[in-house]
Design goal:
The protein is α/β, with parallel strands linked by helices. It has one domain: Ribonuclease Z/Hydroxyacylglutathione hydrolase-like (Metallo-beta-lactamase, Chain A), CATH 3.60.15. Helix content is about 20%, strand content about 30%. It contains 7 helices and 12 strands. A 7-stranded mixed β-sheet has the order 4-1-2-3-5-6-7. The longest helix has 16 residues. The radius of gyration is 17 Å and the shape is globular.
Length: about 250
């Protein structure tokens, strides 16, 4: 098994976008990542990042929100460009796992027509019921795409498990990988940054009760030895010397 952490640009944002209670107006750099796993299930991609459309013309998709959430992404930051550097094409991806369907995690889903998409049933339902919360249509892989609606924790293959962590969105899920070098816990937006790895300091969530329970569950996994990788932490990768693609973990 090899695990790649793939950087996909970043957002220059108002910290209130991550922590609604923070009205200071401070700005921060929030990275965006996808995760690629070579394993017994084939080539598995967790999240697809932003679409080219959002990178080119963010205002058309985000409206005035772009002032507080500004993407800083070039063509080289698109998931297909990053995969090509690893020697892969879109058709090589067997399975896409979406943590959730927000534009910075699922915006390029429609670039993988041959993959199967796994997402929680409650997330598929949420995007249909509240489309304004999911402004980039790139989340939709197309009418002929194979989709699996999950209900709770789901094993992908030996050593790769999706963990149901609702709260940020109704069907949010995180990823636990039992790698040779140790357990890796990709929290996605259940925990934005190390500061949010605290049930009393939640990030943005549609359901704070669920979000708090999800953070507590992820904290339990970390106490059991899983190393947490947060989704938008501006300094964690540097401080912990993450191996970013093309480097990898085993």
């Amino acid at each position: 098994m090899r695990v790649f952490i793939i950087p996909l640009g970043h957002f220059d944002l108002d910290v209130g976008s991550l922590t609604p209670s923070d009205v200071s107006g401070r700005r921060a750099k929030a990275p965006v990542y996808a995760y690629l796993i070579e394993c017994a299930a084939g080539l598995v991609l967790m999240d697809t990042g932003c679409s080219s459309a959002l990178a080119r013309d963010p205002r058309s998709l985000l409206g005035d929100e772009v002032e507080s959430l500004t993407p800083v992404m070039g063509e080289a930051d698109h998931i297909l460009a990053r995969l090509e550097l690893l020697g892969y094409q879109a058709q090589d991806v067997d399975l896409v796992l979406n943590s959730h369907l927000h534009f910075d995690h699922a915006g390029a889903n429609n670039c993988f027509p041959k993959a199967e998409f796994w997402c929680q049933q409650t997330e598929w339902a949420a995007v249909r019921a509240h489309p304004r919360h999911y402004p980039d249509p790139g989340w939709d892989p197309g009418p002929t795409a194979r989709r699996r609606e999950l209900r709770g924790d789901t094993d992908v293959t030996a050593g790769v498990r999706l963990i149901s962590t609702p709260g940020h969105t109704p069907g949010h899920q995180s990823l636990l990988v039992e790698a040779e070098e140790g357990s890796m816990l990709f929290t996605s937006d259940a925990v934005y940054t190390s500061a949010h790895f605290d049930p009393e300091h939640l990030g943005a969530a549609v359901d704070t009760v669920q979000a708090r329970a999800s953070v507590l569950r992820l904290m339990d996994l970390a106490r059991e030895g899983a190393r947490p990788f947060f989704s938008h932490d501006p300094v964690q990768a540097e401080h912990e010397a993450w191996r970013l693609a093309p480097a990898f973990y085993r």
